[in-house]
Specification:
Layout: E1 2-5, H1 18-40, E2 47-52, E3 55-61, H2 64-67, H3 74-86, E4 95-100, H4 104-113, E5 117-122, E6 147-150, H5 154-169
Parallel strand pairs: 4-5, 5-6
Antiparallel strand pairs: 1-6, 2-3, 2-4
Helix pairs in contact: 1-5, 3-4
């Protein structure tokens, strides 16, 4: 797993704890399950899970096609559900797991929700806003910068996306 940035903690550049790595894979597998659900209803297979203290607060699949809603990205839906469950818009002491690097809209929502940690499986070289195309989550002018890590189950996530788009092309 590759750590992209962790504000104010220079010690973070070492390897993560084994238990953290296993936990990250576990929750990313849940996010991949959501991504598969998205593909099942014709949406791009992206899934997201919000976790706090080892407990899943919410899980969501991409539902733009299903809802005919351009904002129904998996991250947005998962953040909304987590906020509702917590009874407030701040999603503190949590990790957002997502199968594809967040876009600018989702990165903005992550910043506004004050999510402290984001883990994504695979980079998005066309629209990623966590280091690939833009880096909204590390923007020093914003009032919140979460820890961002990438890599757990990257191959599985990329394969799911490739298969989905290959089936669309015929």
């Amino acid at each position: 797993m590759r750590r992209l940035h962790r504000p104010h903690d220079l010690r973070s550049f070492g390897p993560p704890e084994l238990t953290e790595r296993a936990s990250d894979e576990h929750f990313m597998r849940l996010a991949l399950g959501e991504a598969e659900r998205a593909a099942g209803h014709g949406d791009v297979p992206i899934g997201a899970v919000v976790v706090r203290a080892g407990e899943t607060l919410s899980a969501a699949a991409n539902e733009r096609e299903l809802r005919s809603d351009p904002t129904a990205h998996a991250e947005i839906l998962a953040l909304r559900a987590a906020a509702e469950r917590l009874g407030g818009w701040r999603i503190a002491e949590a990790t957002l797991y997502v199968t594809l690097e967040p876009c600018t809209m989702c990165a903005g929502a992550i910043v506004l929700a004050r999510v402290p940690r984001v883990v994504f499986a695979t980079a998005d070289p066309k629209a990623g806003a966590a280091g690939s195309v833009l880096d909204v989550l590390a923007e020093p002018r914003l009032n919140h910068r979460p820890t961002v890590e990438s890599g757990p189950l990257a191959q599985e996530s990329a394969a799911l996306l490739r298969a989905f788009f290959a089936s669309r092309r015929g």
